[in-house]
């Protein structure tokens, strides 16, 4: 495993400058196709949904349209559900779970909610199976005013009209073995900090908002998903990634304070899902299904509340 001291770029204890970021960028290679694997699927959904380009990444020579899918018969009297995936491009089931929900389950909610789905927020990183964008910035720490991540800024512009009125925001993520072997060591090296191993939780979990927790909502998601894949246990310290497990499969972060995608709206029901695709107990199909199931559970819970 790499550490901040053994990471091949930079000097231990010294944050990266332009030269180190350029060296990192030169090592990134395209490993899959956004056009073939994502845009083609979105194209097939056009007959059932409104599809729009809400921005683009001009990462010359590469150009990536940023795509969103909406309910065709948008009704301002209905609650709004925001679904985001691929904020970290390498987290595959976040992208394909969102698309699977649209294809297989969205019809069940027609006339009951308005859906706004951004299935692949970070297409450059999707192609390179990476956490950061082209500029070595983590989009999922960049949902704040003046964001330097184009991916995050574009999504915030898209969401602005429903920011204060959305009922639910579910942000679909994965925790992978490469978090510990590559991405967290890279982060420590980039920032000139020591790498502190945390271990990878084996299973699905969710992240609630520590500033406005909704424990019953989170448990509704957990109970639905455990029918599809196993739930991550707490470690010997009762934690996941250094955060206290407040209920089975649930930890909390200050979503807005940390600039996380799930904190970008004032939706009363917000969660970040974390699927574990590297477990020998799951398949890619199960991972996608877990994400789609989490979306359904989130919507079902929101619609069941007294105000709706």
UniProtKB/TrEMBL annotation:
Q: In which family does this protein belong, per the annotation?
A: Belongs to the peptidase M14 family.
Q: Which organism is it from?
A: Marinobacter salsuginis
Q: Which GO terms describe its molecular function?
A: hydrolase activity, acting on ester bonds; metallocarboxypeptidase activity; zinc ion binding
Which terms are listed as keywords in the entry?
A: Hydrolase, Metal-binding, Zinc
Q: What's the protein here called?
A: Peptidase
One Gene Ontology biological process: proteolysis
Quote the InterPro entries the UniProt record gives.
AstE_AspA_cat, Peptidase_M14
A Pfam family reported for this protein in Swiss-Prot or TrEMBL: AstE_AspA_cat
**Domain of life of the organism in this record?**
Bacteria
Matches recorded under PROSITE patterns? PEPTIDASE_M14
The chain positions of domain Peptidase M14 read 30-308
The record, for Gene3D superfamilies, names:
Zn peptidases (3.40.630.10)
| Upper taxonomic lineage | Bacteria, Pseudomonadati, Pseudomonadota, Gammaproteobacteria, Pseudomonadales
Which cofactors, if any, are listed as required?
A: Zn(2+)
